[in-house]
Structures are given as C-alpha cells and as structure tokens.
Amino acid sequence: MTTRRTNQGDPASRRPGGAGGARPMTRRQRDARRTSSSPGPAAQTRVQVDPPAEPVSALRPALGVAVLAALLQTAGPLLGVVNGYEPAFLSWPLLGLLAAAPVVLAGWLAATGRTAMAAGVLAALALFAPGRVLTDLQAGLDPINGARPDLLLPTSLEPVPVAAGMPVLVAGHVAMAVAGVLATRVLPRTTGTARQGLLALALTASVVAATGLALPPFDSDDPYLLPRFVADLPLWPAVGVLLLALAVPVSAALMTGAPDVDAARGGLFGTALATTAVAGPPLVATLLLPDIHPTGGPILALLAAAALAALALAAGRETAEAPGDAGDAGDAGEMALPAASRLHLLAGALALAAGGAAVAGAFLPQLTVMGGLEAPANYAARPLVPAGLLVAALGVALLIRAWAATVRPALAVAWVAVPLAAAGALENALTAVDVDVVDVSVGPGPWAAGLAVVLAVTAGVCAALAGGVERDDVDITALSVDPKVAWTAGVAVVLAAGAFGLPAVAGPDYVSAGLVTQFRTSSWGLLAGLVAVAAACVVAARSRPVRGAALLLGAAALVGVRLLELPLTAGRVAGAGPAGGVWFGIACLVALLAAAAISGARSPRPGV
C-alpha cells in the first residue's frame, strides 16, 4: 500500500509565511525566487544575457559611421565655421582628439571581443548630439552669444556668414547620433537586476557634471565674448545647453540600467568622454588666452567625468570578483547601495547644509559697489530664507531615526524650494554682470545661493534613492490608485499651473516673472516648482497612505514658498499687489492639503 504524505502536521504550513497564509513577498524575495528556480547556468547569476549572433560584425556599421563622425568633427573646425573669424587658438587638434578618443576606445573594445561595452560607448555619445548641434549652430549664427573661442573669436558686432566648416561640423554630430542608434541594436535585450548602487553613485556624479555644464564656461574681459549662465541665454542656445546638461544624468541612468554590466560600463565611459569633449575646450582656452579666466563650471564637469570613469572601472572589478552564487551579495556588476538609514542621514545632512547656505545667501551682499556706495536692496533674495528654513527643518527631521522614513518623501519634493527661490535671487546678479558696470560686481550672496542649489539637488537625489531602497523591502504589488486622492491631486496640478505659470506680484509698470508671461531668469525656478508639484501628485495617488500624504505636504510647502513671494518682495514696487499666481496658489495649497488629509486617512493594506 502506498501512503500519501501530507503536510498537515508540518508546523510550517500553519505559519503565516507557510503555504496556508503566505505573506506578500518583497521585491528582493521575488527576485531571489526567480533566480533560484532557474535551472542550469541561469541559476549561477541573476542576469542571463544571450549575445546576439555575430556581435562583432553587427557593430561594424556603427563603428564605420562613428569613424566618419570623428573625421567630420575634426574637419569642421579645420575648415572654419564662420567667414572672417578664426579660432582664438589652434584648436582643431584638440577637438579632433576629443572626437576620436571614444571612437578609438569603442574600436579597441570591439576588436578584443567586448562588443557590448563598445556599443555602450557609442550609445552614450548619441545622447549628446542634439545639444552639441544647437550649441555649435549658435556659435556660427550668433558668435557674440555663442562664446566659443575654440571655434571662432569675433572681433565686431557685424553679422557674418557661416563657412563650409559649419555644415561639416553639424554633420559630424548627426553622424555620431546615427552611430549611437546603430550601436543600440547590438546591446543585449534581456532584463536583469537593477544595479542600484552603481546607479546611485553615477547619478550623483552626473548631477555635478550637469551643474558644471550649465554654469558659464569662463569669465571674459573681451567685449565680444559674453559667456552666460544657461538661464540668461536666448531661447535656442539655452535649449542647447540644457540638452547637454540633461544628457549626462539621462545617459548615466539609461546605461547603468542596461542588463549587461559591460554595456553599463561602456555607457559610463562614453558619458565621461562626451562630458570631457564639452567641458575641456573652454578650460584649455582659459589657460591659453589672457582675456578669459577659468570658472568652476568646466572644472566641476571634468571632475564628475573622472568620477564616472572611475565608477566604470570599479564596476568591472566587482564583476571579476563576484561570486558565482546568485544568492551572494556580489552580483555581477552590482555595487552595494547604502542602507536606507544611511541614505536618510546623508540626505538630512545635505539638506541641512543646503538650508544654511540658502539663508546665508539671503543675508550676504548680492552686489559689491565700489567707492563706498551702498548696494541696492535685493528683495528677490528674501524668499531664500523660508526656502532654506524649510529644507533645513526637513533635514533635521531626517537625522532623527524615528522620523526619517516618514519625512523622507516630503524632502524629495520640497528641496525644489531652494532653486525656486535662488533663481529669483540670481537674476539681479546675472543682470549686473551682463550690464558690465565697472563699479559693480557680484557679491558673496549669489555664490552661496548657487552652492545651496547644488546641495539641495544632491539631497533630493539621496532622498529619492532612499525611497527606492525602502520599496525593495516592501510588497508594492498590492498598491493601486486611490480615486479620491487622484482626483483631488489632479485638481491641485491644474491649479499649480496657474500658481507657477502666472505672476505673483503686480504693480505700476511692474509685473513679476511667470511662465506664460514675463518669462525671465527666475522663471526657470517656477518651471522646476511646477514639475515637482505635478510629479508629487502623480506619485502620491499610488503611494502608501503615509508616504503619499508626506509627498503632498512637501508639495504644499513648496507652493507656500511660492506664495511668500508677495509679502517678501512687494516692497520693491510702490503700490504692488497680488497677481493671478497668488490666487491660484492659495487654491492649489488648499487642494494639496485636502489630498494629503485624504491620503493619510486611508488604511494601509497588509504588507504595505
């Protein structure tokens, strides 16, 4: 007689985690189960990558187009981009070397069998091509605002036609974009475990690089070279610089998310080389020309590029040393992401420093006037005080372990208050620099405000990464969109468009900045505020109750800083009063608080 064995007497079957009452699995547990259940070689690693057929031959078209692109990018400056204007120094060898370096690297990697890494290098370069096209065209069509001494040195204000080198140079960037697109066809398509540690460090470095690329590339005593901050440029050159700045974090995020670690490493190398190609020539120009002087922008970008290259090397060493067992901590290419508690501490410390720098930027002199004259009052810097106090307070809360997890979503939104306030404070300083008054120079206040922005951005990135680590330890499959929160938050988004898009202060012959009208330097801060509020409302609708409420409260605090512009800055104009942005802001604040109350009142589901 055959006896059937049952598990009725097995205590495990009666435990909550047993077959009779399984708890929801976290993301890490689900990944581990999928890994352990895979037979054969797949059980040895979390990522099973099937290389494409004939990978080296498949990359040859991309390499051929990339070689052509490097030749065109070298020939363009050699031929000259504008009739009558020569480069300020012998720049074409440097530009040719910077164009050829990633192509040579990709060719060598392909020749040694590391095709995925070579494809990653070329794919990263393609993301920089649109921004390089716009900035190079600006240098040829508007040499004064283009400020590219490596391409041309203008000697008058008269318009001049472009030369044969300009279309050749632009064609080189377009060809590089085509090469990158062709290279993506060789990248492995299999999905695998996200390398969160590598992603965290790469994003941190890329934010620094993006900040450096957005800053003026040099300081100039030449009246025909006018380098400017991105927010103070005309529309199309500003778009070009923004595309270059955004290409760094976008490339870092996309390439570190590649399923094959070699592709991720190649993408980081490509991002580092492309950043160097943009930031290197201005720094070299400051070393060779007496009338222009170095600034921190290119230096920051180059240091961040070196950090990205170091991360690519470190990821390669981890791959070589990783144990074969998928259950070990050393997954292929995985760099350990700090625990949520450590990210909370880091985000809190950075937020506290950002808040202190913002408050200091409000009280330090914005302009320095020679001759003993008193500098004018800068009302635009006053919103830095509530913005700094808000971010600093959230930073202190994150340093307290019992509060950190609850407060973290609020900081992930509220950090935008610092660039929102700093944009208005920097507008006056940028205007004074553009006017180029001999007796007026930038004081320490704008530098403190700029430092506060960098610290706040980094704190926000750390807070967002802490949220990613936290979600790895809970089951989020049970989450769904709450209709009440979604509808209330949707109303808040519509009202936020008016709160940030319309001016907040109006008076006789004066209207403050907005997005729909009066778009100025400070409008970039308003745009960041609108995007942050909209993103918080979208995420909060599908978040855990307490976390969603914290997100919405952080967005409400951001709107509150926007509303404080009226009482803090109205003194600059006699008879000033509220404009449309104030009334929309008040309504948006009420809607956000209502959505936060609804979200916080929800009952959390088990395991969530």
Please characterize this protein's 3D structure.
With 608 residues, the protein is mainly α. It has helices at residues 11-14, 27-36, 55-79, 92-111, 115-141, 143-146, 165-184, 196-214, 235-256, 261-288, 296-321, 340-363, 384-398, 401-414, 417-435, 444-472, 483-501, 523-540, 545-563, 565-569, 580-601, and strands at residues 218-220, 292-294, 367-369, 440-442, 505-507, 510-511, 577-578. It has a three-stranded antiparallel β-sheet. A two-stranded antiparallel sheet has the order 1-2. The chain has a two-stranded antiparallel sheet with strand order 3-4. β5 (505-507) and β6 form a beta hairpin. α4 packs antiparallel against α10. The two termini are 48 Å apart. The model is unreliable at 1-23, 31-54 and 319-337 (pLDDT under 50).
User: How many angstroms does the end-to-end distance come to?
Assistant: 48 Å
**Cα-based radius of gyration, to the nearest Å:** 27 Å
Rough outline: globular
Q: Helix segment count? A: 21
Number of strands: 7
The average pLDDT value, as a whole number, equals: 78
